[in-house]
Each structure stands twice: as C-alpha cells, then as structure tokens.
UniProtKB/TrEMBL annotation:
Protein name stated in the entry: aldehyde dehydrogenase (NAD(+))
InterPro entries: Ald_DH/histidinol_DH (IPR016161), Ald_DH_C (IPR016163), Ald_DH_CS_GLU (IPR029510), Ald_DH_N (IPR016162), Aldehyde_DH_dom (IPR015590), ALDH7A1-like (IPR044638)
Keywords, ordered alphabetically: NAD, Oxidoreductase
Organism: Pseudonocardia asaccharolytica DSM 44247 = NBRC 16224
Sequence ranges assigned to domain Aldehyde dehydrogenase in this UniProt record: 22-498
Amino acid sequence: MGTPGTSTRRPREIGSFIGGTWRDDAPGGRLTSVDPARGEPVAEALLADAGLFAEACRTAQAAQRAWAAVPAPVRGRMIEQIGRLVEANKEALAALVTREIGKPVTESRGEVQEVIDTCAFFAGEGRRLYGQTVPSEMPDKQLFTFRVPVGVAAIVTAGNFPVAVPSWYLVPALLCGNAVVWKPAEYTPAIAEAFTELFVHAGLPAGVLGTVLADGPTAFDGLSTALAAGLVDKIGFTGSSAVGMRIGELAGRHLQSPCLELGGKNPLVVMPDADLDLAVEGALFSGFGTAGQRCTSLGTVIVDASVHDEFLRRFDTAVRSAVIGDPTREDVLYGPMISQRFLASFEKHLGLIGPHHVLHGSTGTGRITAANPRRGFAGDAEAGLYAHPTIVSGVRGDDEIARTETFGPIVGVAAFETFDEAIALANDHGYGLSAAIYTETPAHAFRFRERVSAGMVSVNNSTSGAEAHLPFGGNGRSGNGSRQSGIWVLDQFTRWQSMNWDYAGRLQKAQTDTAVLPGDPGFRLP
C-alpha cells in the first residue's frame, strides 16, 4: 500500500464554503488528509486564514436576519429535510467517515444515525420554541416571554466525531434562527464538504451556513478578529480542555458565554455485586471503541478489591481476543488512530506508565508493526496507524496516568476497599464528563449518582453513548456546565426576551402601584 504521500493520484482540492460558494484560494496553506488505515490521500484542504474566517462570519451576519424571519415551524421543516437527505445518503457518508478518519464502519453508521436522530428530534422543536404568558401584579397588563436567536454562532468541532457532534450544534442553532460558521477539523475536508453539501441541498439559504477549513491557531485568531468586529454572538467548541480554557477566556472578554464540551477522564466503578461479564463488555467498548479517541472514553476502571483479580483476568482475555485492524470489516473493535498526530500523542502518554504498573491486553505496546506485532491483527501494519490496546493495572489515585486524558487505546485499572475510596478515585482528577457504575444494588447506583462529579452517569452501561434527546456535557475540566442535545441545548442558541403590555391607559409602576388586600393579622382562635 505504501506510506502516506507516495500515491501518484492527486487528491481533490476542497476549500471553504462562504456565501453559498466553495472557495478555491488557500491563504492559510494546504493540508492533505490521509486514510489512516491505508496511507492513501483522501483530499487536499485549502486552508483559510484569519481574514477569511472573519469574512465568513460577516457573510453569515448579513444572512441571519432573513433566516430568523422564517417562521420557526418552517425552519423545523428544513431540519426535517436535512435529516431525510442524510438518511438517504447514510451508507455513502458512513463510508467516507471510515475512509478519512479510520472509524470502524459499524461505528460510522451509528454516528450518521445520530445525525438523523438529531434532525428528527429538532424538526418538531420548530413548533415548540415556547415562551410563556405571565400574570402581572397590576390590572390591564400582560407579561410575555420569547425565545430569540442569538445571531451568528461560530462552531469549532473535533474530528473524532466529524458529523455527529457538529449536528449537535448546527441543527439546533439553525432551527433557532441563527446563522452558523462551522470550523471542522482541518484534517477531515472530504467529510466537511459532504456534510455541508447535504445541508445546502436540503434547501438551506445561501449564507446561513458557512464552512471554514482552518487549523486551530488560525481559527482562534479569526474568532478574535470576528468578536472584536461584533460578527459573532455565540461560540460552540468541542475539543481539548486546554484549548477550551483559552476560548472561554476569549469569549469572556466579549461578555459571551461559550458552549464548551471538553475532555474527560471517565471512571467505571465495578461493585462487588456487579455482573462481571457485563462490566467487561462495557469496559471493552468504553475504553477501546474508536481506539479510545472519544471524550467519553473510559479512563480508569475502579474495581472492588474482592473482585479485582477476576475482573482483570476477564478484561485481559476480552481485549486480547478482540479483532483490531481494517475499519471496513464489520467485526473489528477498533481501527487505526485518526492521524499521525494522534498516534504520536498516544505514544507519548505511554510514558506515564510507571514501574509499579503491570501491562495487559496485547502482545506489545505502542504502534503495531511487523517488528512489534499484535496476535490476531487484521490490518495493514506498515501502511496504517494502528496501536496496541493497553490495560494498565496497579493504578493509584496520585498517578499521573489517573489524572491525564490519554485519548487512545489505554485503560487503567485501580482497586478500592471502600465506597468513599471509589468516589475519590472517580472524582479527584478534576474532569466531570461521564461516569458509569456496575452494580445490582439500587442504593449503590443512587449514592454514586449523588456524589460523582460527572454530568452524565450510566448504571450497568458504558461511559460512551449519547441519545439525541438527552443532555450531553460535563463539569470541571470537562466543560462550563453548558449542555448539548435535547431541549436543553436551546438555551445555548436562544436568548430570553421579556415584554410587558400595559393597556390601562395610565402609567402603572411596578412595586409601587400594586393593590393591597388588607387583612387582620392580629386575629387568633379562641
């Protein structure tokens, strides 16, 4: 198959989409996306600079008012049309996701289904952007509340979920009457183009959605420029906690509250009464699905000491027997790392393994190669960016590996003696995205929910997995408390406006002209 960059076929060029037109200039340079399973070029991104990003925001601002004037139920019908078009193209879009980022095709299909589900949910919300009528304390006066769009939303998303996560932002933002400038991962230009085209061909007016291909620092500079010019009213960001903090600071300087969905170090607690086979199944999917490249990936399994050794034995067996390799196969647990950058980061995190740790799960660590083989491997090790699954037992709460988001196929295992110790291990890393507990005792489940810091809790299920009608988001280093999905995300893309209508024919002053009904406070029963 060769190595990246050796193909003689020139990849197709893809630029930014602004004002209904694909641009063919590359002021920010060029970047070739590569199939991480085979090392073949997929597409060449024509990258924008900060000025082009700001131009996209200005174009969106010019289109937003007309879009907001479209009745909300009609905007909901547009969302329904997007969902139907995505559904009609499900297999093609899933195959493209698998090709450009190496996600197993079964997971890619699930990701596209998440887009379809999101559209199905929000199509109806176009008829439910409810305000309220509120009784006044004065006669001949009515009070109302309304949801109004924020304006222009700048959305920056990562490449590990290149269509599902963007849909969590784009769909509700557009439904609420906002224009959107979307900055996808620069290493997924083919996916970004396809996703944009689906929105456009569903009938979305020109200018309402812009897609800007740019690297992270350029996008940050473009955001700074656009905010200073008053062109952006809301930022949505999914990515690392470190970058999220910088975006939060930038937004704060402009008195904006961004929607931040950041990293995680997600715990899975195994109580002594847990179904161990079920817990192993959940840990296998949580820790190694998408090669551990999810914000909700399992970080540490926290196992009661009485069942620790047996759980570890079963977990090790399950991971060793899992099929890893070609992501087009239906039976693989995971495929390659997304790109060379992600592989290098994962290999760096292997340096967190200490002398008191014991490794399990594979016949090697690090990148899978002919010289470092994986027994039962089902891919092209020389062309693809594959990594061994790694289980690290003997993890303690003060270990760096217990406090760091490793973003790769590595899972720690720690033991606990008391429930308080389990909670400390689950919380003390400072993240708060997702958490799971395996138990047959309701009291354990409810006490875990009360005390764990995560924004999302699963009982007898994995740390990964989202549904379109349930709030998604975290706390602490995992986010600023904002939520995506379901009705809760509407608060991110609308602002409340109140109105009072006085038809008394005279000025009535609140708290001053309010009627008082006299009583007899001194009355006592005999």
